[in-house]
Amino acid sequence: DKVLVLRFGDETDAVCLQHDDVLAKAQLELRRMAVIYVVDWRAVPVYTQYFDVTITPATVFFFNQRHIKVDFGTPDHTKWIGAFVRRQDFIDLVEVIFR
Predict the structure, then answer these.
(1) Could you read off the pLDDT of 49-78 as tens digits, one per residue?
(2) What's the CA gap between 92 and 42, in Å, rounded?
(3) Is 59 exposed, middle or buried (0-12, 13-18, 19+ CB in 10 A)?
(4) Three-class SS of residue 63?
(5) For residue 6, what pLDDT is reported?
(6) Peptide bond into 45 cis (omega under 30)
(7) Could you tell me whether strands 34-40 and 3-9 are parallel, antiparallel, or unpaired per DSSP bridges?
(8) Rounded CA gap, 85 and 22, in Å?
(9) Which residues does residue 34 pair with via DSSP β-bridges, in sequence order?
(10) What sign for the dihedral angle of Cα 47, 82, 79, 38?
């Protein structure tokens, strides 16, 4: 079983591009623990509405077919909003979810 990571965003947005760069740099190290998908939020309006994606990038996590809710210190525990600044921060979060 692997952690499923869905990044909802816009590939023309500078913040999304920064976030995508962090995800891409972490992907090789996380290949045994996670699968990462980059999703254009306009292409899947049903899921954008379901996960209440109003600010991009928004990253949603699943493990063992369950939506993972994490306390990020914000009122919304269903997703990470914004870009990860450091690759290691993203890796640490995926490792916590995986274990």
Answers:
(1) 998 888 889 999 999 999 998 887 777 788
(2) 29
(3) buried
(4) strand
(5) 95
(6) no
(7) parallel
(8) 7
(9) 3
(10) positive
pLDDT value for 97:
93
Contact predicate 48/10, CB 8 Å: no
End-to-end CA distance of the chain: 11
Cα dihedral sign, 62-68-71-77? positive
Structure tokens at 15: 């913040």
DSSP string of the chain, one letter each residue: --EEEEEEE-TTSHHHHHHHHHHHHHHTTTTTTEEEEEEETTT-HHHHHHTT--SSSEEEEEETTEEE----SSS--S-EES--SSHHHHHHHHHHHH-
Give me the residue label for tokens 């996380």: 30
68 by DSSP, 3-state: which? strand
Strands (E) across the chain are located at 3-9, 34-40, 58-63, 66-68, 80-81
